[in-house]
Amino acid sequence: MIGRLNHVAIAVPDLEAASSQYRETLGAVVGQPKDEPDHGVTVVFIELPNTKIELLYPLGDNSPIKAFLEKNPAGGIHHICYEVEDILAARDQLRASGARVLGSGEPKIGAHGKPVLFLHPKDFNGCLVELEQI
Length: 134
Description:
The protein has helices at about 15-25, 65-70, 85-95, and strands at about 5-10, 30, 35, 40-45, 50-60, 75-85, 110, 115-120, 130-134. It is an alpha+beta fold. The protein has one domain (about 5-134): 2,3-Dihydroxybiphenyl 1,2-Dioxygenase, domain 1. Strands 1, 2, 3, 4, 5, 6, 7, 8 and 9 form a nine-stranded mixed β-sheet that branches. Strand 8 and strand 9 (about 130-134) form a beta hairpin. The two termini are about 10 Å apart.
């Protein structure tokens, strides 16, 4: 069902400092910040030859990243994202196997402009999983 690793998302307490670290220290190609109000985050994508890193910063008081950073003030890995060909078929197969899809279970449009769903971390070894339709 799952395909390529699309990205690893890291919650950061200082988006500019983290972007600069990847750009200046690691020599990576770092995109511009983009607000995603539907998800309560500002994102920056770092392009790598084989995948991407997504830096996440809270957007608004109800941001899930704000709560994550309160528990992890230095930041940390927030989720991993896998590609799927058909997000609705993947959702239905996962639900049938007992996995919990977060939210309403209906895909939202993610930062890449494609449908995404999140899976409960307790069902995946403590890791929040995002699925993105390719």
